[in-house]
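ARCHIVE CARD
CATEGORY: sequence design from structure
SOURCE FIELD: tokenized fold
FIELD CONTENT:
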């Protein structure tokens, strides 16, 4: 009985030490429990790295984390339980936690959305590989096809759904940052025209600055290749050394107090400094929480504006006779659009997309008010309405239907699997078919009115799709 009491006490100690942490006296622990505690501490340190891992299973960091966790599993397995049930249970729990992290690491690297992000990055790589040669030669021209292709990839990346998962947000952010950096480097090469170069005859130093500028243009090609992972011959460290060397060469030049040459040298140095900042992109992505846009000041401002828009929306839809609210509501909504115009998206396409969608939400509500006002105004002049051309009456009938449908769409808060979504989509399609059946009989005003009504129906349908596409920043 005494032995059983001792075993029970030891078992309780095992649970307390492993489950509740470090508060107890380490000297009183069983050696096996102490070792398990040490291993769990090491596993805990790896846990955060696993949660934030945003790469692929082929990455060096993935293999490093996998090796570390596997090593801990071997360490756990080597702990001697001395046949004691409670130590066996403690070892089992430690092994399960480590195996969970291994599984989480694998899921992060092979998540369907992560693979989608990688596929888009590879598309961008192919575009860059085709266009990179001119930059290596010091040129700065790219095709319209390249610009359109890169922009399309950026747009599709902003639409990748992360479900709030940190590893996916981080992967999307890093990929967007690299591709947008390439866009900026190319655009600066195409658009930016230095106020000089000067002629080589102006001063001996000018010839050297011109030579450095040619090297800078070539460095742009190297930088693009490094950012996009299409270069196996260069490293970021080597390019950084090259750029630093170019600045040192420029600093050593004697410009003889000539302002125009000093300004030329200054512009070239600033261009080199801009390129060096791009080399720190990966480090910034790892050391900051820039990928967490929920904390971004521009996003917070957009959400604040959207909250005000929803308050106006709620008031309009809940008030039976809202005619008196139309003027004030429109003025407030237009003010909100002006506020959105002042929100700076910086260089982040996700913030730009969030702002664009907020503008569409507010514009939809303004359009809803405009149509309501037009329909109510028309009812005030029954004699004119009776004398209208038949095609105009048909169009106004459709507009009346669209107004009712638009109100439902604005209120709709479901997803694309909801029956109500399919019903609204079908109703809008029917209105488009009804407009298509209207014969304007050569009346230009009727043609224009039908065209506007078609555009309105399409915009409502687009807004319905936008509300239900589960987009997130």
């Amino acid at each position: 009985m005494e032995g059983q009491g001792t075993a029970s006490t030891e078992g309780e100690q095992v649970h307390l030490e492993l489950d509740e942490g470090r508060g107890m006296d380490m000297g009183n622990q069983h050696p096996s429990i102490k070792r398990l505690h040490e291993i769990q501490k090491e596993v805990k340190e790896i846990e955060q790295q696993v949660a934030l891992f945003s790469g692929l299973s082929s990455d060096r960091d993935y293999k490093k984390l996998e090796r570390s966790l596997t090593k801990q599993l071997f360490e756990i397995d080597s702990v001697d339980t001395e046949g004691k049930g409670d130590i066996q249970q403690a070892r089992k729990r430690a092994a399960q936690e480590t195996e969970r992290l291994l599984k989480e690491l694998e899921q992060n690297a092979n998540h369907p959305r992560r693979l989608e992000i990688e596929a888009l990055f590879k598309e961008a790589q192919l575009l860059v590989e085709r266009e990179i040669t001119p930059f290596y030669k010091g040129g700065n021209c790219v095709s319209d096809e390249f610009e359109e292709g890169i922009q399309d990839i950026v747009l599709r990346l902003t639409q990748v759904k992360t479900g709030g998962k940190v590893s996916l947000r981080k992967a999307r952010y890093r990929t967007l940052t690299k591709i947008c950096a390439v866009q900026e480097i190319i655009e600066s090469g195409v658009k930016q025209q230095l106020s000089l170069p000067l002629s080589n005859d102006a001063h001996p130093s000018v010839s050297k600055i011109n030579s450095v500028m040619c090297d800078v243009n070539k460095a742009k090609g190297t930088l693009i290749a490094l950012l996009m992972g299409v270069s196996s011959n260069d490293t970021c460290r080597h390019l950084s050394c090259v750029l630093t060397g170019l600045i040192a060469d420029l600093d050593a030049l004697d410009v003889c107090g000539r302002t125009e040459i000093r300004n030329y040298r200054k512009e070239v140095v600033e261009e080199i400094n801009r390129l060096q900042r791009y080399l720190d992109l990966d480090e910034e992505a790892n050391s900051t929480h820039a990928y967490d846009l929920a904390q971004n000041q521009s996003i917070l401002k957009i959400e604040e504006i959207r909250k005000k828009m929803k308050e106006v929306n709620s008031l309009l839809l809940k008030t039976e006779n809202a005619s008196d609210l139309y003027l004030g509501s429109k003025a407030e909504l237009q003010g909100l659009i002006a506020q959105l115009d002042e929100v700076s998206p910086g260089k982040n396409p996700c913030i730009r997309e969030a702002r664009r969608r907020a503008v569409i939400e507010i514009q939809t509500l303004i359009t809803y008010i405009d149509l309501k006002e037009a329909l109510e105004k028309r009812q005030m002049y029954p004699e004119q309405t009776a004398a209208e051309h038949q095609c105009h009456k048909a169009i106004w009938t459709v507009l009346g239907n669209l107004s009712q449908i638009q109100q439902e769409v604005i209120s709709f808060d479901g997803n694309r699997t909801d029956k109500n979504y399919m019903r609204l989509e079908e109703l809008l399609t029917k209105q488009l078919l009804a407009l298509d059946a209207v014969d304007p009989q050569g009346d230009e005003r009727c043609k224009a009115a039908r065209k506007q009504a078609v555009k309105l129906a399409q915009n409502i349908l687009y807004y319905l799709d936008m509300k239900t596409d589960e987009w997130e920043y």
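CARD ANNOTATION: The chain is about 75% helix and 0% strand. The two ends are 63 Å apart (CA to CA).
SHELF: design records, drawer C
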